[in-house]
Design brief:
The strands form 3 sheets. The protein has a 7-stranded mixed beta sheet with strand order 2-8-7-6-5-3-4, sandwiched between helices. It has a 3-stranded antiparallel beta sheet with strand order 9-12-11. Strands 1-10 form a two-stranded parallel sheet. The protein is 42% helix and 13% strand. Helix 10 packs parallel to helix 12. It folds into 2 domains: 8-44 and 290-389, Aspartate Aminotransferase, domain 1 (Alpha-Beta Complex); 47-285, Aspartate Aminotransferase, domain 2 (3-Layer(aba) Sandwich), CATH 3.40.640.10. It has helices at residues 15-28, 47-57, 72-86, 101-113, 128-136, 150-162, 185-198, 255-268, 274-285, 289-311, 337-348, 375-389; strands at 34-35, 96-99, 119-123, 140-144, 169-173, 201-205, 231-236, 249-253, 324-328, 351-352, 354-355, 366-370. The chain starts with 14 loop residues before the first helix and ends with a helix. By secondary structure, it is α/β, with parallel strands linked by helices. The protein is globular and about 60 Å long.
Length: 390
């Protein structure tokens, strides 16, 4: 009776829990902890979105079971977003589905399309659900480089030649969590061409597509002609509109994959609470100046954090996108590994970060800092980190 169950024994200990436990203990002892650990937006949603939620709550019909695929108005709003942002046409009936956040959507898609032993190509380091959603479903994960470019394509080619069975799908995530890497359309074109040739599905995650600071807006893989033949793409309102707790995400693209996800979800849930879906529709269809404000807020925090850390003797590159800084562990602390270095920072500086090992073994020489503290608190953290590193 003490043996682990088949699916849970494939999951390693959740390393973030160690840092969270230490953080909670220090706070209980009265320590002030500045928390860069989780990408949890600290600002409320735009007022017109919250107002729409409050308005819809007064409708008695809104409290009944909702629609597992998402209410029609929200799927139409999502299609309109793709049309104006990416110039991509989405059929809201057959090529779009609303999910309970992108994390739930990715996990349920894995359950829908994966057979035990299937090979999935996933970046390492990456957001944990990208790999573990498929591991829970019984797949084998083969790691590929986290940055776009020639190495990524070489790794895919090697996997096709040497994996048995041939890979079922590849996951791409740009702007990347945790690394903040970005990809351009030329890279996506090569990935689509390769995967169409070898009949490999593409699962793209663009949850941070609106959080960018330098250069052009990040593209969608669906902008590539023919991508919808093999690809789906996940997005979310969590970061764009500061709605993480609302749990609203989307999946669009290939009809076969959308159909499989729709069928599995129909057995598992009745969809998000209708007032939340109505408010999410207002977010997508309403004024978008809130996105510019969000972007400016994170850019200001990014600049304060990166300039401060570099001045403190910790060289960290400025992320071009996402709400994270992917920070190489300072050389003199490199041998500690990311978990012990994260514990060091929280104990000596009162600053919580996410250990890179939590995103894959190739992330163990980095930690991730989320841009979720205001500029004053960020400067306070930098002073404490500088003192600890000395």
């Amino acid at each position: 009776m003490d043996a682990e169950f088949h699916r849970t024994k494939r999951l390693p200990p959740y390393v973030f829990a160690e840092v969270n436990k230490l953080k909670a203990a220090l706070r209980a002892a009265g320590r002030d902890i500045i928390d860069f650990g989780m990408g949890n937006p600290d600002q409320p949603p735009p007022k017109h979105v919250s107002d729409k939620l409050a308005e819809t709550l007064t409708d008695p019909r809104a409290h009944r079971y909702s629609n597992s695929r998402g209410i029609p108005g929200l799927r139409k709003a999502l299609a309109a977003y793709y049309a104006r942002r990416f110039n991509v046409e989405i059929d809201p009936e057959r090529e779009a589905i609303v999910t309970l956040g992108s994390k739930e959507g990715l996990a349920n898609l894995a359950q829908a399309i994966t057979s035990p032993g299937d090979v999935i190509l996933a970046p390492n380091p990456s957001y944990p659900i990208h790999a573990f959603g498929f591991i829970i479903a019984g797949a084998a994960i083969r790691s590929i480089p986290f940055h776009p470019g020639a190495d990524f394509l070489v790794a895919m080619d090697r996997a096709v030649r040497h994996s048995v069975p041939k890979p079922l799908a590849v996951i791409v995530n740009f702007p990347s969590n945790p690394t903040a890497e970005v990809a351009d359309l030329d890279f996506y074109r090569e990935v689509v061409a390769f995967c169409r040739k070898h009949e490999i599905f593409i699962i793209s995650d663009i949850a941070y597509a609106e959080v960018y600071f330098d250069g052009n807006p990040p593209p969608s893989i669906l902008e590539v002609p023919g991508a919808k033949d093999i690809a789906v793409e996940f997005s979310s309102l969590s970061k764009t509109y500061s709605m993480p707790g609302w749990r609203i995400g989307f999946c669009v693209g290939n009809q076969r994959l959308i159909g499989a996800l729709t069928r599995v979800k129909s057995y598992l849930d009745y969809g998000a609470f209708t007032p939340i879906q109505v408010a999410a529709t207002a977010a997508l269809n309403g004024p978008q100046d809130c996105i510019d404000e969000m972007r400016a807020r994170y850019k200001g925090r990014r600049d304060v954090l990166i300039e401060g850390l570099n001045a403190a003797g910790w060289p960290v590159p400025a992320p071009p996108a996402s709400m994270f800084a992917w920070a190489p562990i300072p050389e003199r602390y490199r041998e500690m590994g990311s978990l012990e270095f994260s514990k060091f920072l929280i104990e000596k500086a009162g600053v919580a970060v996410a250990p890179g090992i939590g995103f894959g073994e190739y992330g163990d020489d980095h930690v991730r800092l989320a841009l979720v503290e205001n500029e004053h608190r960020t400067r306070q953290a930098i002073r404490a980190i500088k003192a600890a590193l000395k």
